[in-house]
Predict the structure.
Amino acid sequence: MIEALQFEFMRNAVAAALLASLLCGIIGSFVVVNRLVFLAGGIAHAAYGGIGIAFFFGIPYMYGTIGVALTAAILMTAVAIKAKNRSDTFIGVLWAVGMATGVILLDFTPGYHTDLMSYLFGSILAVPTADIVWMCALGAATLVLTLLFYRDILAISYDAEFARLRGVPVNTVYFLFIVLVAVSIVFIIRVAGLILVIALLTIPPYIAEKYARSLMTMMILAVILAVVFNLTGLWLSYNHDLTSGATIILVAAAGFFLSFLLDFVLFTFRKNHSHKNGIPPEKA
């Protein structure tokens, strides 16, 4: 793949893969630790309405998608905070409404849009330079905000009520990072596609969580895993002419199942080792 870097589209693809890895590692860890995968999925699918709006009104894709993603994120989060018992229903409704709105608006838009598949399944090889600039800005903002609010994120993620008692502005920090989740999803859609974005956002942090002893370590390890998955998937898709988003997700899924296999091997080894040493299995 090194010789392919002479092409601008390939350099953009590598840059997008690295920047998406940063976002997946940090924002994905926040999503996984706070059990917000369903909410993040709702935001991603509701964002399809923004794609329909952008095509229908002839405005840049980014404006329409970010606008709808942010609106959906704020509404979903507000309901999740005020009525937790019914939040999953509301998220499901917005999820469906966003998708349906996008489909209907695209039906009303004249002409055949050949690049719609790239929004559904990703096209990292077609990421423009302008998106790379925006992803750099978002990555820098995410890093700065994470460092500034790290202790608050840690407190909220593991005990929100105790965090409130300590004076942490729980709702403010929560909304701030949900906004980052929404904007990150819009940009990662370019890499993995709307349908597959949640897998890329959650698989690296999920694997990292099993081997990390702190949230910061989890984020760093998740970023490293995302880099490996993204670059490996990019290399395979380029060399074998495969759909980039789907290839990246399959690589990540392979890592996901390998982590389970490793857990099983380690568990079996510890069990056998404890048995040889006369230690009861339940205390191993």
Q: What stands out?
A: The chain is about 80% helix and 0% strand. The chain has a mean pLDDT of 86. Residues 3-283 form a domain with the ABC transporter involved in vitamin B12 uptake, BtuC fold (CATH 1.10.3470.10). The two ends are 46 Å apart (CA to CA).
